UniProtKB/TrEMBL annotation:
Pfam families: HHH_3, Lactamase_B. It comes from Halalkalibacter hemicellulosilyticusJCM 9152. GO terms for molecular function: DNA binding. SMART domains: HhH1, Lactamase_B. Residues 67-262 form the Metallo-beta-lactamase domain. This is Late competence protein ComEC. Residues 345-364, 371-390 form the Helix-hairpin-helix DNA-binding motif class domain. It comes from the Bacteria. SUPFAM superfamilies: Metallo-hydrolase/oxidoreductase, RuvA domain 2-like. InterPro entries: ComA-like_MBL, Competence_DNA_uptake, Hlx-hairpin-Hlx_DNA-bd_motif, Metallo-B-lactamas, RibonucZ/Hydroxyglut_hydro, RuvA_2-like. One of its GO terms (biological process) is DNA repair.
């Protein structure tokens, strides 16, 4: 395990201490100081009022769930434990559930599904069926995928309260403040409606935006929010659709986190984004390189522990250019549903594909491309775009 420690300094610099440790409890050793961001400016006066004395540690787990998303906020106050889960992994796996169980998580205070794609809400139903969940937050957008339907059924069958947060709402969950940055309203585009939030703990701030893309990042800037933060989880797995220069500048992070699967079929993260973040002198960590990444905050200091040692190199062959198609042989089987081979049950996990369309799809096989789905009655340009943007279907 590998440990990195960051702390705000009065001269607005960041110091990293590098050494070996444990993801859950290790301490750094053989420290080496590296000034990674001497010119990185912070608005210290804006944060001063948020600093609280004696905060117990907050652990933010950026969990390695392959080509999916899951982030756990874990902290306690006077013996009362708080757990907030932002996104819930891939529907084909149970890795998130196993991670929570391995870390003795039995209760979730708030479980957030940033948007209803199956790589973000994939295991919400399993968690609702296995654990005590107090509240479920979702954007309010809907899809026809079986994953989404299972999640909604699980919410209805549980004792959890349900809420659709909107931009401008602020919640205090113990010492953690959650400010909702997006959406202000729904447009029907699930990425545009993706829940974005600022998490503030003492003087440290984290921004998570799900799969928010260019237009949504621009909207968050135009709403006038103070987006300045220490940690930014890059939107849409580091896709070139997200992390536009203006948004990166507005957040002004010291640390960027990327959640993506190794050799994934989408080529995430895209080289353009990685180079942009590197040029901004932001320290990068990625789950496909570092495994699970745990950022610990005491309200002033950030300590970063990674499951594996690694380095985010913009020349990494996994990274693709903005318009480059990923190599077919790089795709991992669990990344997508191959419409040319999937069973009728699997096909119904895809947005807009119910039993009748799944039967038609099987009859019309093989398909040369995703665009070829318009041969199916009822699949037009709009629904085709929804299916492609959902990102769980593919042609092989």
């Amino acid at each position: 395990m590998y440990t990195y420690v960051l702390k705000r300094l009065a001269v607005f610099s960041i110091i990293i201490l590098v050494g070996c440790g444990q993801v859950d409890q290790g301490q750094p050793s053989d420290d080496v100081e590296i000034d990674i961001n001497a010119d990185h400016e912070y608005k210290e006066e804006d944060h001063a009022e948020r600093v609280e004395e004696g905060l117990e540690p907050l652990k933010v787990h950026f969990i390695d769930v392959g080509q999916a998303d899951a982030t756990l906020f874990e902290y306690s106050v006077d013996g009362e434990e708080y757990r907030i889960l932002f996104d819930a992994g891939h529907w084909m796996e149970e890795d998130l559930l196993h991670y929570l169980q391995a870390n003795d998580i039995e209760h979730i205070d708030i479980m957030v599904g940033s948007h209803p794609h199956s790589d973000h809400i994939g295991q919400m139903d399993l968690i609702l069926e296995t654990m005590d969940v107090s509240e479920v937050w979702m954007s309010g957008d809907v899809t026809t995928s079986q994953t989404f339907l299972r999640v909604i059924e699980a919410v209805e069958a549980s004792d959890a309260d349900y809420h659709e947060p909107r931009a401008g709402e602020v919640y205090d969950v113990g010492p953690l403040e959650i400010e909702i940055l997006n959406p202000d309203q729904l447009t029907g585009d699930v990425h545009e409606g993706s829940i974005g939030a600022m998490f503030t703990y003492g003087d440290t701030r984290f921004v998570l935006t799900g799969d928010a893309e260019k237009q949504t990042e621009e909207a968050m800037i135009k709403r006038g929010y103070d987006l300045d933060a220490d940690v930014l989880k890059l939107g849409h797995h580091g896709s070139s659709t997200s992390t536009i220069p203006a948004f990166l500048q507005a957040v002004n992070p010291a640390i960027a986190i990327i959640s993506a699967g190794e050799d994934n079929q989408y080529g995430h993260p895209h080289r353009e984004v990685v180079e942009r973040v590197a040029d901004a002198k932001v320290e990068m960590y990625a789950t496909f390189v570092h495994g699970t990444i745990v950022v610990e905050s005491d309200g002033e200091t950030l300590q970063i522990r990674t499951e594996r040692e690694g380095y985010m190199d913009p020349s990494n062959q996994q990274l693709t250019e903005i318009d480059e198609e990923p190599l077919e042989e790089q795709a991992v089987e669990s990344d997508c549903i191959n419409i040319n081979e999937a069973t009728i049950e699997l096909l119904q996990e895809i947005n807009h594909i119910g039993e009748e369309r799944a039967e038609t799809l099987i009859e019309l096989r093989p398909f040369e491309s995703m665009e070829d789905l318009i041969r199916i009655n009822g699949i037009g340009d709009g629904r085709l775009a929804d299916i492609i943007n959902e990102g769980i279907a593919c042609v092989r």
